[in-house]
Structures are given as C-alpha cells and as structure tokens.
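RECORD TYPE: inverse folding
INPUT: structure tokens
STRUCTURE:
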C-alpha cells in the first residue's frame, strides 16, 4: 500500500499521471469521502472505526479555561521561546521544536507552532486504548503477518523506497509506505504549481516501473488522505476579534487552525457576541448540530470546541497554530469540501465484489484484512471492498 499524502483526484489525468489514470480506468477506483478531521483520518484508517465512535478528531484538545496554567515559566518553555525567535521560517521552527519535545520526552503530535504560553492548555491527545480499538498493525503482529511500515522524510528517499518495494515483498507479506512530499510541496507552493506537478509525474512514473517488477499475485493499493485546495485569501481571526474588543484569554479561548477555529467561552454573552461578529465576516460559518451530524463529528466532545468556526474553501486563518511567518499556498481540512477528494486505487487480479463511486476511510482496514486472508474483527465498522 502506497499512501500519497495530499494526492488530489484533480491530478488524475492521462497527461499528468498516465499510469494511475490508467489504473483508475481498468482496475478498481473510488473517491474517498473527505473527512473534516485531522488525526481522526489516521485513526479511522488504523482501526476501521468512525470518528464519532473513537472520539478522536484532532491530536490536541482543550485542557480547561484556566489560561494561567499556560504561563508558568520553565527552562523548557524558555528554550521554546528562544527557538521561536531565532527560527528563519516555519519549517525550521517545527523541526527545532520537534527535537526539543523529543529531548523533553513530551509527545509533539503533528508539527505545530502553538504559542508557548498555550501549550499547557492544548496537550497532545493520546488515543484511549480499549479492546475495540486495536490498530491495524497490532492485529497484523498478533496474526503473525510479516510487514514493514515506512515514512521517508525526503523526496530522494521516497524514490529509493518505491524502487525497493519488489525486493522487500520477497521478505514481507505486506508493505505500508506513506509519502509526504506532495503535502509539503502543496502547502509551500500550491497544488497547481509546476513543482507539485513535476512531483506527481515523478511518483506516477516510479509506481509504473515498480508495478512491472511485482509478482502477479501482488496487489497494489494507492490511496490519499485528502487533497489540496489553492489558497486565495487569509483572515487574522484573533486580530479581528481584538479590534472588536474581544480579548483572547479573557472573553474567549481559541485553538486556531488554518481551516477552522475552535472556541471556548467563560460567559454566554461572549459566545453570542463572538459568533455574531465572525458570522458577519463572510469567510466561514459556525457548525450547527446538523452540520456536525452530516460531518460525523456530533459526538466528539466539547474538548475539541464548544463552538467550531469552519473556514470556506480557498480561505485560511493566518497567522494560526501551524503557520506564523508565511501563509500556506495550499491547504486541506475544509468542512463540506467541494474542490477535490482523496482517492483509492487497487491494482489486483482479485475480483472486486463491491464497486462504489465513493468509499469511506473505515472501509480500507477490512479490505487489507481480506487481501491478507485474515478475518475482519467484529468491531470494525467499515465494509471490505473485495
């Protein structure tokens, strides 16, 4: 399985990626219903269980309205402050922060730039272990399946790994390769940029050569977790609210992402006033209960937001907790996304019993089990595609 982070269905064309396009026409192809979720996507894939059941939406959750607990000065926080000041760009800042968190043995999660004074407010969320939430890889180990999971960090190492897949399959029953280059390049240069298109062509050609060397009984799955939307506009929500005389930490607390902002309020009057001001901006909307129901996140819990303001496609909040210095040129994670969709391709001689225009992320885990002749655990909510 090759997981192409941020591969958009808009890239599937005979000119841009002829191999994957031909697979989509000849073999099995479906678009994956986008999830308005972050680490929730990974957890759906790993467990075959929906976000509402898992109750894991993001990798950071709110720890309470006591903002003073984020102001304690420690050596660790002083060093983070120093790193934030000296870093030349957001990418370097995230790398240095990652190293600091590793040294401190504190879970970092998705590379972020949460203000140091707020780190205690938004701790990393560890998935709650229950018998119903055993990950795909844990099940494979229990069943004696020999597999390897790789996530190379550089473009050149991605190419090396793809070329090695035929040899690795002689030693392993399954390979899980996640390639992040399209995500990195899409954020930095935009999904329609020439550099992203060159990378798409390169990955497509590498996959074509790799398939030629596979044994006939091997199955190739190519999937993505989300697409990438071009960014046209930015909005500074904290500055906007400041000019409306709402003070962060006094009237509200917020977790500011690029495509959403989660809010918590000390008083109902502040909630109503903030909602009124932001709703009038025209750059997004506060999710209603019915919205959350449609998105499958109505039961995730208020630790992810008493109110969630979802940004419109092609807009991003900036600055926010992942970008301070330069806004991204491409973004994903929009509610009610219409621009593009993630994809699922399967190159296999096996008969496909269920062909769908769209599948869910929770359908992938049971499909992998069936490919490996393993029983699908009873707790899995998805349906195999075989």
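DESIGNED SEQUENCE:
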């Amino acid at each position: 399985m090759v997981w192409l982070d941020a591969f958009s269905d808009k890239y599937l064309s005979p000119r841009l990626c002829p191999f994957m396009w031909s697979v989509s026409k000849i073999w099995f192809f479906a678009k994956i219903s986008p999830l308005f979720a972050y680490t929730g996507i990974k957890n759906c894939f790993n467990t075959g269980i929906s976000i509402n059941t898992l109750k894991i939406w993001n990798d950071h959750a709110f720890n309470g309205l006591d903002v003073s607990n984020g102001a304690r000065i420690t050596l660790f926080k002083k060093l983070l402050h120093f790193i934030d000041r000296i870093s030349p760009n957001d990418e370097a800042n995230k790398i240095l922060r990652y190293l600091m968190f590793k040294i401190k043995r504190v879970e970092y999660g998705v590379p972020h730039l949460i203000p140091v004074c707020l780190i205690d407010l938004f701790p990393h969320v560890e998935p709650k272990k229950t018998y119903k939430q055993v990950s795909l890889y844990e099940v494979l180990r229990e069943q004696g399946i020999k597999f390897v999971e790789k996530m190379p960090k550089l473009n050149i190492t991605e190419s090396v790994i793809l070329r090695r897949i035929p040899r690795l399959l002689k030693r392993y029953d399954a390979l899980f390769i996640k390639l992040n280059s399209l995500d990195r390049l899409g954020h930095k240069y935009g999904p329609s940029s020439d550099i992203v298109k060159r990378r798409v062509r390169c990955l497509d050609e590498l996959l074509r050569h790799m398939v030629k060397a596979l044994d006939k009984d091997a199955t190739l799955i190519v999937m993505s977790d989300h697409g990438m939307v071009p960014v046209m506009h930015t909005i500074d929500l904290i500055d906007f609210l400041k000019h409306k005389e709402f003070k962060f930490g006094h009237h509200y607390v917020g977790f500011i992402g690029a495509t959403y902002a989660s809010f918590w309020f000390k008083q109902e009057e502040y909630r109503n006033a903030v909602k009124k001001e932001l709703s009038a901006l025209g750059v997004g909307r506060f999710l209603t209960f019915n919205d959350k129901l449609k998105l499958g996140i109505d039961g995730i819990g208020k630790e992810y937001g008493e109110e969630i303001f979802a940004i419109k496609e092609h807009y991003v909040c900036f600055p926010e907790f992942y970008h301070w210095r330069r806004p991204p040129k491409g973004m994903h994670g929009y509610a009610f996304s219409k621009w593009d969709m993630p994809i699922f391709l399967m190159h296999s001689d096996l008969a496909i019993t269920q062909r769908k225009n769209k599948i869910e992320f929770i359908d992938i885990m049971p499909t992998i089990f069936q490919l490996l002749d393993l029983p699908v655990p009873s707790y899995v909510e998805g349906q195999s595609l075989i």
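NOTES: The chain is about 35% helix and 15% strand.
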